[in-house]
């Protein structure tokens, strides 16, 4: 499929996941509330809202408790973020064995995406990651069995430009449009994938 290069919203084309954060940035309590409020307003299947969050501003008690459970790889950069957010998904109804929603992970992703857009509006960037001890965090925050910490998000001011990590360049390349768009209305589907 050959198309003209699309015009993208500046947030979409400029978003990146910082690998280093500025320690001199302090996030305001009102900004934290606005991030969680943006996540709270995300759409969800049947308005089930299967999400919850644990948020710790750098160097507060919650943040210190979260940092103890980071993996070596994320522990090298995530503690410097102004805010760490644990993103929880509801797996089943309390006191029940049936699944809460087959869309729960998707819905949590929507909520974190809304948080990411709000962070951008505040001049911040978000780096979502999974390099942490999930069981340790569950114990640390007494997460009930029907909930799961799916991911963490580090939020703050980046200490580097997009594509630059500790002086090295990292690729922000994406797969070509032809590889991710299978078909367009009134056009044949591409060959086998």
Automatic annotation (TrEMBL):
Record keywords: Oxidoreductase
Nitroreductase domain residues: 14-156
SUPFAM superfamilies with a match to the protein in the record: FMN-dependent nitroreductase-like (SSF55469)
Organism domain of life: Bacteria
Annotated family: Belongs to the nitroreductase family.
Name of the protein this chain belongs to: Nitroreductase family protein
Organism phylogeny: Bacteria, Bacillati, Actinomycetota, Actinomycetes, Mycobacteriales
């Amino acid at each position: 499929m050959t198309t003209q290069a699309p015009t993208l919203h500046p947030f979409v084309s400029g978003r990146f996941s910082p690998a280093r954060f500025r320690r001199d940035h302090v996030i305001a309590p009102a900004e934290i509330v606005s991030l969680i409020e943006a996540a709270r307003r995300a759409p969800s299947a049947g308005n089930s809202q299967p999400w919850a969050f644990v948020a710790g501003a750098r160097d507060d008690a919650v943040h210190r408790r979260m940092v103890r459970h980071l993996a070596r790889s994320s522990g090298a950069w995530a503690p410097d973020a102004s805010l760490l957010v644990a993103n929880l998904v509801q797996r089943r109804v309390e006191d029940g064995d049936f699944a809460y929603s087959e869309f729960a992970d998707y819905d949590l992703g929507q909520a974190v995406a809304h948080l990411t857009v709000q962070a951008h509006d505040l001049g911040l960037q978000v780096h979502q990651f999974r390099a942490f001890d999930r069981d340790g965090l569950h114990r640390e925050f007494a997460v009930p069995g029907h909930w799961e910490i799916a991911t963490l998000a580090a939020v703050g001011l980046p200490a580097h430009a997009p594509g630059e990590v500790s002086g090295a360049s990292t690729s922000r390349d994406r797969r070509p449009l032809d590889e991710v768009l299978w078909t367009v209305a009134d056009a044949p589907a591409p060959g086998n994938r």
